[in-house]
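FAQ: What does the model actually see?

It sees only this:
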Amino acid sequence: MRLFRTLLNSGRGKRTRAQFLEATRLYFDQYPTDVDPKCGLIESFYEWFVFDFRPGDTGPTAVEDYLRIRGPRLPARERAMLESWRDSRFGFWEVRRVEEGTGFEVKDVFAGDLVFVDEPSLDYPLAPGDYLVGRIEEFEGLSKFGPHALHLSGPLFLAMAEMIEEDSRAMGQEPAAYVRANTHRWYRLVRETAARLPADEPECPEAASVP
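And it is asked to produce this:
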């Protein structure tokens, strides 16, 4: 998508080498030279880099900075799309109900609120009790999962939930706040946890990105 590429290039141009190194080590838990380009996390890293990364945990994200500087001059639809990315919600979601031809309702497992995801034609099977991890974006009145959402098996979700409960308690945070504060960790930890479970692998439902 042209707008995302523009945003990514802007974000990379404004970050120093040290800040990009910080982002890479946070996301991959590795130095850039050690990251396997076939690890399956490169595209989700770039999304996190522009949507969530704050150097030193302070200051604006790339999308916030871009909106502040260029937002007033952008076409209304592009500005609204950037705002949807800025306000997007990353979480672990439980499917509560599926409406064929319309979409499905999910519950934020740790925050408790419900979101109806507008997906008229699903390219992947979902049923109540399924779990997803990923980012929900609202644009032009419709809520959709971003392109990197993963479909978790029951055992994989339970392992992740136990990890989040334990780690958040150790940090003195509510689980929902802990999930939001650590969006750089979850795709990597989901894959690492899946590799330790017998015959388990997170599936990408190829949830449609905002057009």
